[in-house]
Amino acid sequence: MSSKFSNELDLISHLVKGDEQAYVYLAKKFHSPLSNYAFGLTKDDAMAQDIVQEVFLYIWKNRKKLDKVHALKGYLYKITYHQFINQYRKTRAITNLERSYMEALDHAIDDDNAELLKRKIAIVTEAIANLPGRCKETFLLSKKDGLTNIEIAEYMNISVKTVEGQITKAYSILRHEVGSKLKGILFLLFGITSVHLK
Fold first, then answer.
1. Contact between 28 and 56 (Cβ < 8 Å)
2. d(CA 172, CA 67)
3. CA–CA separation, 19 vs 55, rounded Å?
4. In whole angstroms, what is the distance from residue 51 CA to residue 38 CA?
5. CA–CA separation, 12 vs 129, rounded Å?
6. How far apart are CA 131 and CA 153, in angstroms?
7. pLDDT of 42-99, one tens digit each?
8. Could you say which of 70, 130, 149, 184 would form a disulfide bridge with 108 (CB–CB 3.0 to 4.6 Å)?
9. By three-state DSSP, how is residue 39 classified?
10. Beta carbons within 8 Å of 196's beta carbon, 6+ residues apart
11. For 111-115, 122-126, 177-181, which range has the lowest pLDDT when averaged over its residues?
């Protein structure tokens, strides 16, 4: 079966025609990577599986439109991302502040760049892990744990000014890695606790 659909254009052509074997091949090939991507977005295995299921249902229902798709893999990641946004909006009330960050996230991903966003998330995650010790601890206390600068200063027994300096340093390093997309990526990684950007 795999050789029959190994060419992406052939696979798309068969999907457009409603070939169920092509659909099964697509699901087998992309279920695992899309599940991993969705889990990276949601940090929730059940929600990630729901999202992937919705992606494949969407693909089947809209298969006749696939002949306009130029990069199937990127298209699948894009649909997964939009399903994540839909799920997020369904499962919790969104404040105006969060909405602005959802919009920032929309700008972080272009039509065919879901794979690029995935790579940038990995780059930011690695960059955070490689931050200097105290800088990393301060940044994570702020963005991951949601502590205020005053709370961090008390916890680490340092001045508020030092906390501000370490967080600013962290942003400088991270922006160097991904530029203007940092805001949306941090929202993906840490949620609303990451909104106070320098």
1. no
2. 43
3. 17
4. 7
5. 40
6. 19
7. 778 888 899 999 999 999 999 988 888 877 888 888 888 888 877 766 665 555 545 5
8. 184
9. helix
10. 142
11. 111-115
Distance in angstroms (rounded) separating the CA atoms of residues 95 and 27? 35
Sign of CA dihedral 76, 61, 48, 139: positive
Number of H helices, E strands in the chain: 10, 0
Give the span between the Cα atoms of 81 and 41, in whole angstroms: 8
Q: How far apart are CA 56 and CA 51, in angstroms?
A: 9
Torsion angle, CA of 121/26/55/39, rounded to 10 degrees? -40
Encode pLDDT of 4-47 as tens digits: 787 888 899 999 999 999 999 999 999 998 998 888 877 788 88
Tokens of 46: 């059940």
CB 73 within 8 A of CB 30: yes
Could you give the residue ranges of the DSSP H alpha helices within the chain? Answer: 8-16, 20-42, 45-61, 72-91, 96-108, 114-129, 133-143, 149-156, 160-178, 182-190
What is the set of domains in the chain, with CATH numbers? 3-92 (1.10.1740.10), 114-194 (1.10.10)
The 10s digit of each residue's pLDDT in 135-164 is 999 998 888 777 888 888 888 889 999 999
Threshold 0.70, pTM exceeds: no
pLDDT for the residue numbered 92: 59
CB contact at 8 A, 136 and 170: yes
